[in-house]
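Deliverable D5.2: sample structural annotation.
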Amino acid sequence: MKHKYQHHQTLTATLILAAMIGLGAIHPRDPQTDKSALREHDNDHFQSKDTVGQDSISADVGIPVKRFTDVAVDDNNTKWFLTEQGIVSFDDTKWTLHSKNRKVGTQDLKDFAYEANPHGQELWIASPKGTTVASLPIDARTGATTYHVENSSVMSNNVLQIAIGKSPLRWIGTDKGISAFKNDLWLTPEYLELYYEEQFLDFPITSMATNANGDTLYVGTDGAGVARVFRNDVDGISGASPYAQWGPIIIPSDKIYSVFIAADNTQWFGTDLGLARHIGNNTLENWTVFTTDDGLPDNFVQVITADNLGNIWIGTKKGASMFDGSIWFSTTKEDGLNSDNVLSIAVDKKGIVWIGTNDGVTSYNLGVLKNYR
């Protein structure tokens, strides 16, 4: 990985140190002391190495899939992936294609979200036929239910995005608007004066994420900025003013392709023209934009997440980047990624970063890239 002004070897050292801290091998110290130690670590570790790619290995998935468009990690540390063949899992030993359950679709799946609740572990899956909730692990006899307009109050069968809040509260983004399902109750949409149905048809939902409490939803759209809705006190969904360029706020584009809300409620929005960060609750203040001028490999930001140490990870059309709070570090196919077109990123229980692309998935662990395809 490489920063705009630094050799890419710095990222490997940074993430090795970060992973060791997360595993307890190194304890956090004063930030200035850590920076000095990191510089020493850089010099020691890279005396005989030039590229991250020299620390890359490959493994065979054994399933004819290429596009890893989404990834979730369950409580057992099994990785679940959305692919062009349906849902695929990896338990660190075996890859499995889950295609034998007739209640769980395999074609044209749009998104999914993982939820652990008193009933067990579940996946909520978005598709053009509704939203399906399936118990894990998914096999031929797994229980699954699909909610559609004939048997529920979901606004449309064409479900584009899913996000899980607390309580439990499931947010369902469709081509006609946003529905919410809490326990066994569908919440009443009361945001229609602010966000009307035609708006979602003209500017489709592209991504969704909840705040830390799970009761506020940030909705990325293709051309209308970020819609905001929240659960009110009378079992309804109310709306708040959008984040959009005409706000006015400092956001590089109204085409939003990824949304991530950090544990401290810092809001991150990936657009086709760069990445926006918003801190706090004042809509007009504390915005920062990051672009290739700051070190991103590309301005088209398709996915955002955070690792176990709070570092921000993004995926673009030309590689992946990690932000440690001050510097962006990037990796590309040249360094060992399966592909530059990064579609999904997640961090598992062990701190391993999983990077899904349009040509396989790559894991990153202690300076080693491992490619699966």
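Annotation notes: Confidence is low (pLDDT under 50) at residues 3-54. The domain at 57-372 is CATH 2.130.10.10 (Methylamine Dehydrogenase; Chain H).
The annotation will be released with the project's public dataset once the embargo ends.
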